[in-house]
Write a structure and sequence with these properties.
The complex is a heterodimer. Chain A is of the alpha+beta class. In chain A, 46% of the residues lie in helices and 16% in strands. Chain A is elongated and about 105 Å long. Classes of the chains: A alpha+beta, B mainly alpha.
């Protein structure tokens, strides 16, 4: 019903506007085209000025309304995020100044130099000095921006510190899975052809590699746990199509590409609890958003991260059991075989090749 | 009329023109409806064909954006009418995710390629090149006609893909593999994707045929006295556009063909280590990122293919209507050239977060931000062109001023995204959507509207309704800023693009309800306004106020020396000779001095 109503209203508006426009054309012919043309000119010149003024007020008003909803500059929750925020700040100031100057000049000149019988246009085809100046100034300003940008960029993309913990994150339609290297601090080898989501090997770990035996697997839905102020290097994989690990609170992002692992490191500087307090939001959670279109479930491909103290992390880690023992319960130290499950175990052991 | 004789050189062109004139008359008496309006070889008719096809696509693409905006603005509501029209795609009146992604994909594809490439370049290159350089037609009118018909075939294929059982392509207008390569990755990666690729291949053929023709015509068929530096800036812009297209579109074609192989012949150009929908694929050794390099090697120049013609037309229109020469003609040409060169060297700035070597990324940051220098020159020169002018605000002028305003706004946000340090945060957020819609989409659309309002009298011998033109401008201008300016804030909050619903799923992104509603309402109004423009367009072709004078805008360029309704061949007599550049406005106290007027003995030398 409302749809029909809206369509009818639109149609009516359409008709009325058209009739007015048509009538105005006849009126202008009757009144003398030159006269009404000049009147239109004055009206539009005034509107351009009004647009400038209202537009600048609108920019301010918009910022009042929405400014508090964005990720505040300077509130980044990682070391690299601080660099990103600084760069945004520098860029915002420079572009802001240019924006105001050029828009004001554009609309003000348009208004001021509207057609008038008293004035003749000034023949002014070029001025080399002026042009050199406004080539040189942007070039210098841009050099500054590129300089800062690259300084931060190399800091962000440089080698991860030696003591960084390593976490593997794997994307697939439409979930995130995580793997920790365990006590040996080495992620075991994987091969995509042994992936078997149904039978305890969702990542394709090669069980003959002993480095895999203590690797901890964290299933989709569970959070990735990180330690505050401890550098972390993410090893990023994808199983099917390209995904992207988007960490907006850390101001970072990296694609997950099938067949080509990527990495990204950072140091989280605020625990989840810190953020809850800072944002005054008891529900706060660090979210991992998929930022590369990956299919129809793209918009709900969500992961979460918990940043906590070393003690809390250790406590959590102590509760995790290596995937290897879930796949081969009989090989877990202290395992006692039960007769009724023996056949199941046999079935599972035959899986990896 | 054989134009091949004209290819040999400039001197010959002139001697041949007289001969042409006679041939031309004999030739054109036997025109039928089909040769005149359908399989026409007249560049003006082909231009109109591109324009009208472009308008049809713009309506489809625009309508799609209204549909997905409904979902974004009112995710909690149902629209039963949608189910009536789209059946299972809008089950229960709710736009399904597959449908949403198909809508955004087709919206992007048709607006970028069919409207702002074919509809913009195709229209104005065809219409203006022969008219502004003083030629009877394109170098090869037949190839020119083929160019349109390949575009038509591409359109038919793309349109048919909307009706296949599994729906059209839905991997985004960039169609990154493996998503676009794997049938199992989703409905949109099935037959719709093949049709998309075939359509793009046809489109590329079309734009290559057109582009080669534009280049050859501009270089070889200028009338006597029309040296390169006397050409209007529209010609320079179209020349650079065509060169960009000819050099970069073939790369996309190769990318598309390899993708077709991967999809249907079992090759592994883009595929490796894939486990999809519970199945292990045999492909090994390919690189998914390779496609992105091939795609963006076209994709970035494509942005300038869209933007440059708009810049050229805006330069021309601003100069004519401020009754003042364009400021810094050579700097304008030079900056177009610089933009065209740099356009080839910045493609990887779309790929900062793909795992690209950071050292390589550094060069792309440098080259990307470098584009701001020629862009700044252009903006300053446009503003200086307005300074101390005597400006007439025709709808075309207003759209040209709007173009400059939008180009500034969108260009400046490019300085955020081109800097990899910021891109690593803002990449693929709504900030990007806001940025490229303002600077490429809406700005170029403004350039196109400016061109249509300005040259409509030349195309059809009638005017568009002026009042509707003003209303059209103001609603579109205000609407464009209302839609895209606040969208930057969503991006700054980290909201990713291509998320059709954030309620109950995302804690960080679910806070822009009322903003999204406002944007949707405004975009419906703006879309309705464009429909009104389309109505004005077709109404005025038949019923518009007639053009009574040959040169209604008091313009210097050659197209206004033709009759009000020029026939095939453009000038009934000899092709006029050119004696000066196109921008002698306000010189020596005279309002304008057409290019055809010889330089007087007492005329001041300065230009």
């Amino acid at each position: 019903m409302t749809t029909t109503f809206i369509i009818v209203i639109l149609l009516l508006g359409f008709l009325i506007t058209f009739q007015i426009a048509k009538a105005s054309e006849y009126v202008s012919v009757m009144r003398g085209e030159e006269k009404s043309r000049k009147q239109n000119n004055r009206i539009n010149a005034f509107l351009l000025l009004a647009f400038l003024v209202l537009g600048l007020i609108g920019v301010y008003y918009n910022n009042e309304r929405l400014g508090h909803k964005i990720l505040q500059f300077g509130s980044a929750a990682s070391n690299h995020g601080v660099d990103v925020d600084n760069m945004m700040y520098i860029t915002l100031i420079i572009t802001g100044i240019v924006f105001v100057i050029t828009q004001v000049a554009l609309f003000w000149f348009a208004y001021k130099y509207q057609e008038s019988d008293e004035r003749k246009a000034y023949y002014y085809p070029h001025n080399n000095k002026l042009e050199v100046i406004w080539t040189a100034i942007p070039a210098i300003v841009l050099t500054v921006m590129v300089g800062f940008g690259l300084f931060y960029w190399f800091r962000i993309t440089g080698e991860a510190p030696k003591d960084a913990m390593v976490v593997e994150i794997t994307g697939s339609q439409f979930k995130w899975e995580y793997r920790y290297p365990g006590k040996d601090k080495v992620l075991g080898k994987k091969f995509f052809k042994v992936i078997n989501e149904g039978a305890s090997n969702p990542l394709g770990q090669l069980w003959e590699d002993p480095a895999n035996h203590d690797d901890i697997y964290v299933p989709p839905g569970d959070a990735m746990h990180l330690v505050v102020n401890k550098p972390v290097k993410l090893v990023i994989n994808a199983k099917d199509v390209i995904h992207d690990v988007g960490l907006s609170h850390f101001r970072l992002k990296m694609d997950a590409v099938p067949g080509t692992p990527t990495t990204m490191w950072f140091t989280p500087t605020k625990t989840t609890a810190d953020m809850k307090r800072e944002l005054n939001d008891p529900e706060f959670v660090y979210e991992i958003s998929c930022d590369q279109l990956c299919g129809q479930g793209h918009f709900k491909m969500r992961g979460t991260i918990i940043v906590e103290s070393q003690e809390e992390y250790d406590l959590w880690m102590a509760k995790q059991k290596p995937k290897y023992y879930l796949a081969f319960p009989d090989r877990e130290p202290g395992y006692k075989a039960k007769a009724d499950t023996a056949s199941k175990i046999a079935a599972v052991t035959q899986q990896p090749k | 009329m054989s134009n091949d004789a004209n290819m040999h050189g400039h001197a010959e062109v002139i001697t041949h023109h007289d001969v042409h004139h006679d041939e031309h008359h004999v030739h054109h008496h036997k025109e039928t409806f089909i040769t005149k309006y359908i399989f026409s070889q007249d560049h003006k008719t082909i231009g109109k064909q591109f324009l009208i096809t472009g308008i049809v696509w713009a309506i489809i693409g625009g309508l799609f954006s209204v549909l997905f905006r409904l979902q974004l603005g009112f995710p909690e509501q149902t629209f039963p009418i949608l189910e009536t029209f789209f059946g299972k795609w809008a089950k229960g009146g709710v736009i399904q995710p597959e449908f949403y992604y198909a809508l955004v994909t087709i919206h992007g594809t048709v607006l970028v390629f069919f409207v702002l490439t074919a509809g913009l370049s195709g229209t104005f290159a065809n219409l203006l090149i022969p008219l502004q350089i003083g030629a009877r037609d394109m170098a090869s009118p037949f190839l020119n006609m083929l160019s349109y018909w390949f575009f038509f075939i591409a359109s038919v294929i793309m349109f048919s893909s909307l009706f296949v059982h599994t729906g059209p392509a839905s991997g985004g207008w960039t169609s990154y593999p493996p998503l676009s390569a794997l049938h199992k990755a989703g409905d949109g990666s099935k037959i719709g994707m093949d049709l998309w690729l075939f359509s793009m291949a046809m489109f590329i053929v079309s734009s290559l045929l057109g582009g080669l023709n534009y280049i050859v015509t501009i270089l070889n068929m200028r009338t006597k006295g029309m040296t390169m530096t006397r050409m209007p800036l529209t010609m320079w812009a179209i020349l650079f556009t065509a060169i960009l297209g000819v050099l970069s579109f073939p790369v996309l074609l190769s990318g598309a063909i390899l993708l077709l192989f991967d999809r249907n012949l079992g090759t592994s150009f883009y595929l490796s280590d894939i486990y999809v929908a519970g199945q292990i694929l045999p492909n090994e050794g390919g690189s998914a990122i390779l496609f992105q390099h091939l795609f963006w090697f076209l994709g970035h120049p494509e942005v300038y293919i869209i933007l440059l013609p708009a810049m050229g037309m805006v330069s021309e229109i601003l100069s004519v209507n401020s009754r003042k020469p364009i400021f810094g003609y050579m700097a304008m040409v030079g900056s177009l050239f610089a933009i065209a060169i740099l356009a080839f060297l910045v493609w990887a700035h779309h790929m900062f977060v793909t795992g690209l070597n950071p050292f390589l990324g550094a060069f792309f940051v440098l080259l990307t931000l470098l584009i701001a220098v020629p862009s700044a020159i252009k903006v300053f020169n446009w503003i200086t062109t307005l300074w101390r002018g005597n400006i007439r605000f025709t709808p075309a002028t207003l759209f040209a001023i709007g173009f400059v305003s939008l180009f500034i706004s969108g260009g400046l946000t490019g300085l955020f995204l081109g800097n990899s340090t910021i891109d690593i945060h803002l990449h693929d957020t709504k900030f990007v959507v806001a940025h490229f819609h303002i600077v490429m989409g809406v700005a170029s659309m403004f350039g196109m509207h400016a061109g249509i309002y300005h040259w409509f009298p030349k195309m059809f011998g009638r005017y568009l309704n002026n009042t509707l033109g003003y209303i059209h401008f103001w609603v579109t201008m205000i609407g464009a800023y209302l839609i895209f300016w606040p969208m930057h804030y969503e991006g700054l909050a980290g909201v990713p693009r291509r998320y059709l619903d954030v309620r109950d799923i995302w804690h960080s992104f679910d806070k822009f309800d009322s903003l999204n509603k406002m944007i949707t309402v405004v975009s419906i109004i703006v879309f309705a306004m464009q429909l009104m423009f389309v109505f004005n367009f077709f109404y005025s072709i038949f019923k518009g106020r007639r053009v009574r004078t040959q040169n209604p805008w008091g313009s210097n360029t050659l197209e206004w020396t033709t009759p009000i309704n020029p026939g095939h061949g453009n000038w009934p007599g000899e092709i006029p000779e050119v004696h000066r550049w196109a921008y002698d406005y306000g010189k020596d106290g005279r309002e304008f001095i057409p290019q055809t007027e010889p330089v007087g003995p007492n005329e001041s030398k300065d230009h």
